[in-house]
Structures are given as structure tokens and as C-alpha cells.
Amino acid sequence: MTDQLTVSVLGTGIMGAAMARNLARAGHRVRAWNRTRAKAEPLAADGAHIADSPAAAVEDADVVLTMLHDGPATLDVMRRAAPALRSGTVWAQSTTAGLEGVAELAAFARDHGLVFYDAPVLGTRRPAEAGELVVLAAGPVEGRQKVTPVFDAVGVRTVWTGEDGAAGTATRLKLVANSWVLAASAATGETLALAQALGVDPHSFLDLIAGGPLDMGYLRAKAQLILDGRLTPAQFAVDTAAKDARLIVRAGTAHGVRLDLAAAGAARLERAAAQGHGDEDMAAAYFASFDDQPTH
Questions:
Q1: How would DSSP label each residue in 214-240?
Q2: Phi, psi at residue 92, to the nearest 5°?
Q3: 95: Cβ contacts below 8 Å, ≥ 6 apart
Q4: Residues 270-276: contacts with CB within 8 Å, 24+ apart?
Q5: Are residues 177 and 163 in the same domain?
Q6: Domains in the chain: how many in total?
Q7: Spatial separation of the C-alpha atoms in residues 180 and 60, rounded to whole Å
Q8: Predicted structure pTM score
Q9: 119 and 79, same structural domain?
Q10: Alpha-carbon distance 122 to 128, whole Å?
Q11: Which tens digit of pLDDT belongs to each residue from 201-248?
């Protein structure tokens, strides 16, 4: 790396902490903030400075990276950071915020003179920890010399979708990708639940489709988490998946498309959360198929 940047990471949950750690390992100065400070403090061992407030975190930043729960949470945090934001600061917004959310965030950036990049990421805990996320990015060519080293530190590939971050083209692609991820995860859970109910060994189903057109690595990965009971720590939590599913449904409705699977998937995830699985991997939506939670 030739240029060391000061990068402020706002939000150090499952994804944000991994991204902050990889930025520090790449040699950047990292200033991290999280609403629950205890979740950010382990990053100090990697060389990150832990800030007491969003404003303290973004002071003198070259790039601000946000990885919070949703659009409203991100807007609230950035408003708290606003007194310390410098005009011309690059803002890489990586929260899956939805179409309405990203438009509101872009408007905030415009009002404060920030260089805005719509930059959600594709991947879960393990690729985040390995620095192997796929970054979906939209934003001006001028300014990319600052944001590209950040994307390179957290991801294995950057897919540019346009030059106008406010248009939300990266978020649109992320919603399409997540619609497939969530549908595949829900189908996995329902298939295993049906096997359980019918007294079918789930491994016989997996053996049946092995190597054929119906087989897929993602199915096997999520199925194994369920079968082994390894739902924590979450790769992608039920609560977050439910939020994304609702954003997908809303985007479809706004554009005249009924997304029945996404709506049903959101309901399953919300039911699993109500059963106490909100912090577990989204594969835990499996339990939403049962009134009484099974053992395996």
C-alpha cells in the first residue's frame, strides 16, 4: 500500500468489525465506533482507535465507512457525526438500506458536501473476516482513488454499477442478490423441516441430489448448520435477514412486482425471531416450521 488513509468505521457488528480489522491489517488508521462500545473495544488489539461518539470517530477522516443495521439507524448516526464531518470527505455506505433509505442517505451526503458511494457488500461473516467480500459500488469516478484502497482491504472484488451513488444502482443489485440468498435459505429450512416431519433422514435427500443440477454448495452449507446445531455465531443473523426481506418486498411493490416468496420468507424469519432465534444464523428460520421446536 502506498497511501495510508484514516478510515472511520461506524458500526462494528458481525460485518463492520471484520471490515475494520482488515482495514487496520492493510495499514490504514482506523477509528471505530459502535453504539455498544463493548463490541468495538476488541478492535483496539488490532490497532484501531475506539471513539466515544460518531463525531469523534469521523474527525479528520479521509473515508467514512458505515455498516449499521438499516437506513434510519445510519441516518441517525451520520446526523450525530455531522458536526465533525469535513466537506469533501468520502462516505462509503455499506448498510443494506433499501431504495428509500439509500436516497435519504445520498441526500444527507449532498447537503453536507460528502462524496457519496453506495457500496453494499455481498458476503457473510466468514468472507468478511477473510477480506473476501464482493463490494457492489456506485459513485463518482473522481474520489475513487480514496475509496478503492478501502474496498480492496475488505473485499476480493469490486463490481462498479454506475457513477451516481444517489441512483442506488448498487443497492438495487444487492436486493436482487439477497432475494435469491433468502429464498434459497428458506427453501433449505422448509425441506429439512418436511424431512423431519415425514421421518426421512435428511442425508438421504442430500445424497439423492448429490452432483446433479439440484445440488448446490449453499444448500449444503446451510443444511449442515441446521443438522449440526451450529447456528451461533451467526454468519448472517435472522433479524438482519428479516429486515432485508422486508426491503426486498417493499422494492418489488414500489415497482409493481409481487414477491410472494420474499414476503413469506420475511414472515418466517420474523416468526423465528419471535421464537428467540433473532441473533442466530438465518438458517434458524427452520424452526419457524414448528409450533414446538424440534430437537435434532
A1: T--HHHHHHHHHHHHT---S-SSBHHH
A2: -100, 110
A3: 11, 66, 67, 68, 69, 70, 71, 73, 74, 101, 120
A4: 270/242, 272/238, 273/238, 273/239, 273/242
A5: no
A6: 2
A7: 39
A8: 0.94
A9: yes
A10: 9
A11: 999 999 999 999 999 999 999 999 999 999 999 999 999 999 999 999
